Amino acid sequence: MNAFDLHIHSGYSSDGEFPVAAIVDMCSARGLDAFSLTDHNSVRGVGQAAERAAAAGLGFISGIEIDCNYRGTDLHLLGYGIDWRSADFARLEETVAAKVVASFGGMVDNLLRLGFAVDADAVLAAAGDKLPTGELIAEVMLSDAKYHTPLLRPYMEGGERSDMPYINFYLDYFAQGRPAFVPVEYMAFRDAVELVRDNGGVPVVAHPGLNFRGREETAGRLLDRGAAGLEVFNNYHTPEQAVYFASLALSKDAFITCGSDFHGKTKPRIAVGRFPSDERFDGRLSDFVNHVNVIGRQGV
Question: What is the pTM of this model?
Fold first, then answer.
């Protein structure tokens, strides 16, 4: 069991499931020493998480996960110890939401051209007050037989992609470079780093091995261009990748962090506080948590 989980999503993420209160209860039940709420482009749950964590005797770090782009590759930047009350983050969420909504029609059109059966209005109804996502499109299609086509069979029960059908469908069809992908113009990586730093936070590259598989050395360039650390331990990296990123961070005197990337039903095999780690780096993880807490107390 890991002492920290610094990458958790609540229902304030477009693809998250659980309310903040449930997230804090999970962290407490897992016996975590500290956690961070890192919703996609949103800090709306941070205040509530901080209050409930304090009441539960849990350490808490304010956080966010920002969509950005580095030289044509979409990636995620985690911001820790941020001043979550800053209006900058409300503007970020509003800007990203508008771009995602604008891309939704193209996502549906691409699926229809590929031979899927999908109803845009049904997806929007299911989204309610949240953003329509590729994972939600998959959930709507899988939940109603009228949308079932041969193309959907790998994601149905017993299919080869049915272990985490919603996220697997997203990765197969909506991830960058996949057949139904619709580009969204996210902010530049450098701008995301500046946003985090301007608001007192520490910028860390999320799961670099997932976004730069086969180009792992890119993580070094991200550290050179403003990132303060790498999320080394998570549910996506192979053991070899974890060793590589840990060594890279150490060579550049950068921070090493960890997190499950818990979402709930979108990633049902991922649980709070559970991901591969290496006890040799427990001290480095504690150093990071202590560093961010110091920043928070100083109000930087």
Answer: 0.95
